[in-house]
Amino acid sequence: MLAPDAHRIITASAKFPKPSTDFRPAYGTAGFRCDASLLGSTVFRCGLLTAARAAVLGRHCGLMITASHNPEADNGVKIAHTHTHTHTHAWEPLATELAGYSGDDEVARLLVNLLQGNPGDVPSADSLAVLVGCDTRPSSLALTEAACEGIQAMGVRAVQLGQVTTPQLHFQVAALNAGHLSLPPEQQLHAAGEDAARSALFLDLYFSTLLPAFEELCRGRMSTPQAPSSPDSPLYVDCANGVGAQHLARVAATLASATTGLHLHLLNKGGAPQEGGGRLNHLCGADFVQKECKAPLGFSGLPASARCCSIDGDADRLVYFVLQQPQEQPQQGQQQSASSDPPTSPSLHSVSLLDGDRIAALIASFVSDLLKGLPQPLAQTIKVGVVQTAYANGASTRYITQTLGLQVVCAKTGVMLLQCIVLHFSQRCSSLHLLRQTGNQAPCILTFFRDSMQLQHSCVAAHQLLLLSRVINQTVGDALSGILAVEAILRLKGWTISDWQAMYQDLPSKQTKVSVKDRTVIKTADAERVAISPPQLQPAIDKLVAEAGAQARAFVRPSGTEDIVRVYAEAQTAEAAGALAASVARTTRSLAA
Predict the structure, then answer these.
(1) Residues 297-354: tens digit of each pLDDT
(2) Where is this region: Disordered (predicted)?
(3) Which of 117, 123, 478, 500 could cross-link 473 (Cys pair, CB 3.0–4.6 Å)?
């Protein structure tokens, strides 16, 4: 049993005082996020708590230092949960409570009491590790050190992965717990130094899982007569000036010598400002492209037929897009140099989005096609479901349920909440393909195919299903593996981007946000699609939706990452969607004041 040393915790905690007594961050769906200068004590205490959680569960855990799509000056921390455990939410209030304490003795007391009440089954801390990854923000290195000091104060080994994507951290934690990965000795880690050299020590299994499966899956189009070859045009990738750029460079280099026909052209790769490197998430990244419906910086001069996609700062979000109209824009180096800020309202392409809804629909369509090629007894045992959030476009839901005939389940926003739905399905089905999609997080597919493994050499469909399950990161939404999955499926189907767009027509939608005095007065039910508090709010929304016409819908929900209330509206025209969103926002502001 891990026996924490209260004196050691207090001594270490004193090095990371709270920025002020009234600083009380809350652990939300994205963990903790705020201005990086305020986060030292919070990240240290997350290190303590994650080490305690590892001890209670008897499993390796992870911490990711990132604020994802937030501006570069922000940062954050999120616990990477072990793949097979669902009792996660009980730990989130503890993280908030711990972060709010003003005294170091309070911090130590909570950890000691926690482990006394939950002794776990770990013989010693030597058998446990907490993996710590970070993104490329200037503040990430110091916060990584704070996290490691917290982990070590609990007597647990802290292992720095260096600069990795959030999905890569999740993959490593899952692989370590499954026994597929062993940790390098400390001497080797020390010799590797920081950042890229260190992360390279850990990521061979990640890349050797995804890339060979992708190459083999793409080769299947040559032996599939019903799928004509699709144009092998380049894919232009907006890397958001984030950590995904260095890892996509490895993907691009590997595939350059392969026969898949996928050629990645990486833009917004970051780097030093004096060398023309851009700012993280500044007028680029998946969140910017999706919310603004504009192309990122650096995409001037591309042909109208160019295939484009965008990831976010920690590479767990992915959107594809097509440029709609020409733009006049200075060269990338001029826009992103340290001495020349981009214009306040740069002239950027409008884009046609292929977002998380459409990516999930594409993969669901492919899986549905493959199921038809399985032996009937096996096909009948496989249940396919798509887990969406309230933000999923209504047209995508109708396509999946009515055209594909698949089940759709709605979950609250947040990858952990969707994971609970996934595990619920897995407990009910012996063989399962289940796709999940949250916002624009790259869909994840979880597979349980014992019978398919036996059939893979005699059944093409079974073999391709197994390859797809290796291409897609099984632990969490992953933009890098999402790109590989989309590209493989388009090739196997013989589809162009236009073919993909033609699957269904999105309903126009509008998102906005409302500042209120206290966002917690807004309470929701039915996977955040219905407001139950204030009591007058939902009837007012229902009335506005009815007035907006057929297929209109709207909902509000308190943000899990910002002190705002988010508003979403859909209608048959863009004008109607915008008007509905504005009306719901005014009503929310009035009733929640």
Answers:
(1) 999 889 877 899 999 999 999 999 999 865 444 444 443 333 333 333 455 788 999 9
(2) 330-349
(3) 478
Cβ atoms 242, 269 nearer than 8 A:
no
Q: In terms of pTM, does the model score above 0.85?
A: yes
Q: Which residues pair with 568 in a beta bridge?
A: 511, 555
- Kindly give the pairing relationship between strand 74-80 and strand 61-65: antiparallel
Side-chain-side CA neighbours of 70 within 13 Å: the count stands at 20
Q: pLDDT at position 120, please? A: 61
Q: Is 365 an annotated catalytic residue? A: no
**Strand partners of residue 530:** 525
Rounded CA-CA distance 121/157 in Å is 17
Distance CA 273, CA 138 (A): 12
Query: Residues 53-109: pLDDT tens digits?
Result: 999 888 999 999 999 999 999 999 999 876 544 446 678 899 999 999 999 999 999
Quick one: residue 511, left, alpha or beta (phi over 0 = left, psi -120 to 50 = alpha)? beta
Beta-sheet strand order (sheet of 382-388) = 407-410, 382-388, 431-438, 441-448
At how many degrees (to 10) do helices 204-219 and 479-493 cross? 10
Q: What are phi and psi of 79, to 5 degrees?
A: -80, 130
Annotate 478-544 with DSSP letters as a single string.
Answer: -HHHHHHHHHHHHHHHT--HHHHHTT--PPPEEEEEE--S-GGG-EEETTTTEEEESTTHHHHHHHH
Cα 492–495–496 angle (5° rounding)?
135
